[in-house]
């Protein structure tokens, strides 16, 4: 299963999220994931509906437990993890999941996306 994990700023647009997904090569993703508190953001919900994909809302402690490649200072300060996108994708990919590539950033820098593959987790919104 391929999971697209997202990190994004509060003012993100659906278009920026879609651009990040396309840049990551994630149009074949089977689920999308992000931090639990961001999973209800208007643009993120709109993206999930547009793609017809289930959402995995990742708890903060699960984000912090993931070993990510990218170490963004802003993400570390705000979320305690180097990349929310990578951490969300890895968590949602399940046991033995692996990151397919480091996260990519939308051109307006409001969204990041990373892909992971693995057996997947059952819980979704």
UniProtKB/TrEMBL annotation:
Q: Quote one Gene Ontology molecular function term.
A: methyltransferase activity
Instruction: Tell me the GO BP annotations in alphabetical order.
Output: methylation
The residues covered by the CobE/GbiG C-terminal domain are 2-116
Signal sequence span is none
InterPro entries associated with the record: CbiG_hydrolase, CobE/GbiG_C, CobE/GbiG_C_sf
Is Methyltransferase tagged as a keyword? yes
**Keywords, comma-separated and alphabetical:** Methyltransferase, Transferase
User: What PANTHER family does the database record attribute to this sequence?
Assistant: COBALT-PRECORRIN-5A HYDROLASE
What is the protein's name according to its record? Precorrin methylase
